[in-house]
Amino acid sequence: MIEWFTAVQVIVAVLAGLLCLVVGFIGRPPNDLTLGAVALVELLLVAQLVVTIVAPIVGNEPSGSLGEFYIYLISALLLPAAGGFWALIERTRWSTVVLGVVGLAIAVMTYRMGQIWFVQGTP
After folding, report:
1. I need a labelling partner for 15 at 20 to 30 A (CA). Which of 22, 50, 83, 110 fits?
2. Are 5 and 55 contacting, i.e. CB atoms less than 8 angstroms apart?
3. Cα-based torsion angle of the residue sequence 84, 87, 89, 90 in order, rounded to the nearest 10 degrees
4. What is the CA radius of gyration of the chain?
5. For residues 30 and 99, what is the distance between their CA atoms, to the nearest angstrom?
6. How many angstroms from the chain centroid is the CA of residue 119?
7. For residues 22 and 120, what is the distance between their CA atoms, to the nearest angstrom?
8. pLDDT for 121
9. Residue 15's CB: how many other CB atoms inside 10 A?
10. Cα(102)–Cα(31) distance, rounded to whole angstroms?
11. Residue 112 and residue 32: Cα distance in Å, rounded?
């Protein structure tokens, strides 16, 4: 992982989550803005996947468990796809709220991935 990129991911995921929550709570169904925000979060996660495949090869080893890290990353990659799929099928305000929750969950998961990579030591 790259520390500044992780911070950018967390900030973007929080902003996307808050945007979707606000839009959902004012009663709007999913639209290009909310789905695009979640798609941006997904794109950043795919870039993170590429970075974390290359990083150990070039000497940037995680301080914590690589298996635990990849479980978080793969789960995080599935969330926006599942939320976006739901939002396309059920076009209600609650789908937009779900997209917001997905964004906030991704922010927490990305923060935790950063802790596993940079802070957590293996026993």
Report:
1. 50
2. no
3. 160
4. 15
5. 8
6. 19
7. 34
8. 65
9. 15
10. 16
11. 29
Euclidean distance between CA atoms 55 and 70, whole angstroms: 13
Amino acid at 41: V
The two tokens of residue 91 are 């076009």
Q: What is the mean pLDDT of residues 4-16?
A: 97
> Do the beta carbons of residue 94 and residue 37 sit within 8 Å?
no
Tens-place pLDDT, residues 24-49: 999 999 999 999 999 999 999 999 99
Query: Comparing C-alpha atoms, which of 49, 39, 104, 100 is closest to residue 74?
Result: 49
pLDDT tens for 112-123 read: 999 999 987 655
Q: How far apart are CA 16 and CA 38, in angstroms?
A: 6
**The pair of three-digit structure tokens given for residue 61, joined into one six-digit string:** 């080893």
For tokens 């926006």, what's the residue? 80
DSSP string spanning 15-84? HHHHHHHHHHHTTPPP-HHHHHHHHHHHHHHHHHHHHHHHTTTTT---SS-HHHHHHHHHHHHHHHHHHH
